[in-house]
Amino acid sequence: MDYVKLGNTGLEVSRLCLGCMTFGEPDRGNHVWTLPEDQSRPLIRQAIELGINFLDTANVYSDGSSEEIVGRAIRDFSRREEIVLATKVHGRMRPGPNGGGLSRKAIFAEIDASLIRLGTDYVDLYQIHRWDPSTPIEETLEALHDVVKAGKARYIGASSMPAWHMMKALFTARLNGWTRFVSMQNHLNLLYREEEREMLPLCLDQGIGVIPWSPLARGRLARAWDESTHRAETDAFGKTLYVEADRAVVDAVGAIAAKRGVPRAQVALAWLCAKPGVTAPIIGASKPGHLTDAVAALELRLTAEEIAWLEEPYVPHRVAGFS
């Protein structure tokens, strides 16, 4: 496993990040396809044994049960100081006023709740899951700064938003001497490349680490277009992200995978890892082979001709994933 700095920080993270949305009790929250604890633990252990030290979850994943499962697994399979643990805040955790969003009250309540579920005194990376248009960014950033100063988070990051929102947050933090976002968790893969227009150049210019979510496009890049899975059939959000025209890109991935004699997932991940500025794709895993394929993708070097073959069929998409 290779390790790189997260943006222009001194924090060393594995070249792959384990996305933990897959791990959670299916009867809690909105994801009926998640794996309960007894099925999640072997995969988390495998990831750690493969050298993945970067784990990403969120308070809303399976109504908090993802954090609970991940926290117990870290205690059992590793040492806390060896793990870069990331979680997120924004989504609604309870009905009524102040049950979600990025107000000072919500952030202070949710960081404490996440730490209890994770069974730790701090997280390494605390991220806003989305932009909150109903809360002034000054209020959000000062609250996050205070979370860092209280020792409850080491760094802060952001997730899917317009590039101008990210730049506004960076400028506001600098203007006030507050802790700055060090990472961007955004939607980027061979089927959705709109982030190449503004967000990736911004992150390169500002030294922001990029940790893309859904690098395999909800699994579409790991199988033939007409194949399906239980998750694909029950993932309402995923059904809004991709279109029929993406079939041509999936076919190109399949052709190169067949020519190389490797799984499709390795080709799609190798393309993403080669993008300038990408620090660590966030990989989901529901089977042991998903992890071994992801690690193997780090050694796969695509030629310029293969990259052109993969990128040529792309069609512009409407902006997706910001809400």
UniProtKB/TrEMBL annotation:
GO terms for cellular component: cytosol. The keyword rRNA processing does not apply. GO terms for molecular function: oxidoreductase activity. It comes from the Bacteria. Residues 15-312 form the NADP-dependent oxidoreductase domain. The keyword Oxidoreductase applies. This is Aldo/keto reductase. Keywords: Oxidoreductase. It comes from Ancylobacter mangrovi.
